[in-house]
Amino acid sequence: MSKNRALALTRLTLTDFRNYARLRLDVGPAPVVLTGPNGAGKTNLLEALSILCPGRGLRSAAYADMVRHQGAGGWAIAAVLDGPQAEIRVGTAWNGSQGEALAGEPDGAADAMGSPVQPVKGASQARQVRIEGTTHRGSGALASIIRMVWITPAMDRLFNGPAGDRRRFLDRLVLGIDPEHASRVNAFDRLMRDRNRLLEEGREGARRDPIWLDGLEAAMAEHAVAIAAARQATVEALQLAASEQHASGQMGTFPWGQFTIEGELEAAIAEMPALHVEERYRTILAESRGLDASAGRCLRGPHRSDLVVKHGPKDVEARLCSTGEQKALLIGIILAHARIVADGFDGYAPIMLLDEVAAHLDEERRRGLFECLLALPVQAWMTGTDASLFSALRGSAQFLRARDGALMELVD
């Protein structure tokens, strides 16, 4: 992969986002290092970048929580990207309950988005997306344009936390490979909530419509099998990429992982055609209506699956490894994932957001990480309080210092 084959953000403009009143940042395709004291806005900047993807970003925060205190009541993010579709301008905004465009939007935001953000009538609580001058409702349209993956300090205990955290992490990886995955997951969740509501009404004595339930369950089964198949394919691709990178020495100092997904549907897909799995799950849903009604939730399906990771060299489950080993495994996963994305994204590696990435890494592993990022190549945005931890990147990365909602370039 040549040096110019990295998806890169070249301009970022923020308006009233977190602690940034107005910010315009121009950078090159090389890695970016953000340093500064706690509370300076380093993670806020990474969060703004992550909002350029479908979903609620790396913090999974409510849109209202992203509004700057004493700001106009909403926020806007705009960017210029250089990638497979040449240079492209994208932007997103949330206007709260105002129902109108942000007042006083800066020229930089208008320039990066093609024109100022205009509201979608009757959709004041949904965030708006603009891609090359065309407005979209919701963020799904961004999936085919932007590939991004991130690591945050909250993920340091990913392997010891609840299955839902690992499942969401896996779904984010799947989305980087299959842009339609998020829409299928969201559709399944909506259908499941509708079914739960119908079952609750039936349990309380209200009339339950079996034909409606049959239709909901048929649609659930269709989406569920597609979700499980995409997850299984991604896990298999991760295993292959990790094994190949380990064999070729591309993993550097990071351990390779062994990956499996524990889930009823994923296991069935490995043994029978998808149509048979879909029919079986539809039958399971119909037969479990009573149990699900009593439980108040759907007890079986892709929303119960779990990603299991082992430390390959030690053949030990990741949950039993040290914090440093878990961090190294996590980094190894996203490095392998970046290779997979590049193979299917016209050779372009995804943007990486690495918040406090140097924590729990010794000097050898830090150096190994930087070497891997430069070899991919990839535009990685890294944060830390101490710039000296990134000294091995001097001359190869762009160094910025954050303070009080502003950024300044650091020079040697």
Description:
The chain has 412 residues and is an alpha/beta fold. It has two domains: 8-147 and 346-409, P-loop containing nucleotide triphosphate hydrolases (Rossmann fold); 163-310, RecF/RecN/SMC, N-terminal domain (Glutathione S-transferase Yfyf (Class Pi), Chain A, domain 2), CATH 1.20.1050.90. It contains ten helices and 15 strands. Strands 2-1-4-5-6-7 form a six-stranded antiparallel sheet. Strands 8-12-13-3-14-15 form a six-stranded mixed sheet, sandwiched between helices. The longest helix has 39 residues, at 210-248. The chain starts with 7 loop residues before the first strand and ends with a strand. Mean pLDDT is 87; it is low at 98-124.
